[in-house]
Amino acid sequence: MTTVRLEPLGESHLDALADLVADEDVLRFTRIPVPPPDGFPQAWIDSYEQGRRDGTRDGFAIVESGEGGFVGVAVVPRIDRKTRTAELGYVVAPAARGRGVATEALRLLTQWAFSQLDALRLELMISADNEPSKRVAARCGYVREGVLRSLYFKQGLREDTEIWSRLATDP
């Protein structure tokens, strides 16, 4: 398994993020529009930097320890401080898949959300067809709560989304 760390997503990750959002699987299983609009990677970085400032969202680059290469993103697209809940997500670059990167990144992001956000409930929204992502969630102690039928709409198609959660009180 590769050892990774999380660092705040920023300008230094722009080129790698542009490559990531061009990947077919990333486009299939994320909320990124298809095709991504011009300037999307920069706008994505800007939205997470703004969210970091106002406390509504946050984003991190997943970076391999040692050489420090970008291997993906770990994001918090929604932070609700009143209810102490947050939605988490992760996207791994094609060359880094299958090496435990997503699992380690989600573990780190989960620890961060519980300690830094004082969250009580964390949620993952996973395409019902994304088997690798569901395995990552299970390995990190998330529990599948159910299926939100026909929730996600993209490119004229609707698909089911599974909701997974982890509570601060879970083992």
What topology does this entry show?
Layout (H helix, E strand, L loop, with lengths): L3 E5 L5 H7 L3 H6 L10 H15 L3 E7 L5 E11 L4 E8 L8 H16 L4 E7 L3 H9 L3 E12 L2 E11 L4
Parallel strand pairs: 4-5
Antiparallel strand pairs: 1-2, 2-3, 3-4, 5-7, 6-7
Short note summarizing the structure:
The chain is α+β, with helices and mostly antiparallel strands and about 170 residues long.
Q: Give the amount of beta strand, in percent.
A: 35-45%
- Strand line-up across the major sheet: 1-2-3-4-5-7-6
The CATH homologous superfamily is named Gcn5-related N-acetyltransferase (GNAT)
Count of DSSP H/I helices: 5
Task: List unreliable stretches of 5+ residues.
Answer: none
Q: Which CATH C-level class is it?
A: Alpha Beta
The portion of residues assigned to helices is 25-40%
Distance between the termini: 23 Å
How many independent structural domains? 1
Number of strands: 7
What is the annotated CATH architecture? 3-Layer(aba) Sandwich
Do you know the CATH topology?
Answer: Aminopeptidase
Alpha carbon gyration radius = 15 Å
Query: How would you spell out the order of helices and strands?
Result: EHHHEEEHEHEE
Overall morphology:
globular
- Derived from helix and strand composition plus strand pairing, the structural class reads alpha+beta
In round numbers, the mean pLDDT is 92
Largest sheet: 7 strands, mixed
